[in-house]
Design brief:
It comes from Geodermatophilus telluris. The chain is of the alpha/beta class and 190 residues long. The chain contains nine helices and four strands; from the N terminus they run E-H-E-H-H-E-H-E-H-H-H-H-H. It has helices at residues 16-32, 49-53, 58-66, 85-96, 113-118, 137-145, 152-162, 165-171, 173-186, and strands spanning 8-13, 44-45, 71-79, 104-109. Helix 1 (16-32) runs parallel beside helix 7 and helix 8 packs across helix 9.
Length: 190
């Protein structure tokens, strides 16, 4: 994580798995762009999507991330979980900007974070796992891990470190949108 006083992009994430995995994914993306500075703030977890979408939920989490010294913008990353992301995203964004003086961007995975991981299936090193459009990432990852259990805080960061971000971005429109929104915020960094 960036020095707490240094310019950085604040992160709001859904839970414990995302708290560790999103920075890994974003760093891999930054490295692929030739950017090696530490520009990510410590993620603020919502402890579940339901706590983020309730009234006064997302507003508080973005305020915590946005008031940290050095924060130039806040990226909120949550699972879509079956919601129409084209409706839920703007609704959350409208609420998220209320208590923050820095720009905010909301990015929802079309279904869940595991779909982003699965979009780079061949690079995950999970015994023959191959990407097939339309399959649920979490189901396919769990199947590939058997008999081992899939535990988000353990496996999400591990698999994010193995992702081929370029392949995943080409296969997942919602991952591409998240990275575009991250780039918008990153543009404010000195």
């Amino acid at each position: 994580m960036a020095d707490p006083q240094s310019p950085h992009v604040g992160l709001v994430v859904e839970g414990a798995g995302d708290r560790n995995a999103l920075p890994v994914l974003l760093r891999a993306y930054l490295y692929s762009q030739g950017e090696y500075r530490d520009v990510l703030g410590k993620p603020v977890p919502c402890h579940g999507r339901d706590k983020a979408i309730v009234p006064n939920g997302i507003e508080g989490y973005t305020a915590v991330a946005g008031v940290r010294p050095g924060c130039v913008g806040v990226l909120v990353v949550l699972d879509g979980e079956g919601d129409c992301v084209a409706e839920r995203g703007p609704e959350l964004l409208e609420r998220a900007v209320k208590n923050v003086a820095v720009p905010v961007r909301v990015a929802l995975a079309d279904c869940d974070f595991e779909d982003w991981l699965y979009s780079s299936a061949e690079s995950l090193e999970l015994g023959g796992l191959e990407y097939q459009s339309g399959k649920r990432g979490v189901s396919e990852i769990k199947r590939a891990l058997r008999p081992r259990a899939y535990t988000k805080p353990v496996w999400q960061p591990r698999l994010a470190a193995r992702m081929d971000v370029d392949v995943a971005r080409a296969r997942s429109a919602s991952l591409a949108r998240m990275l575009e929104r991250f780039d918008e915020l990153r543009a404010a960094l000195p």
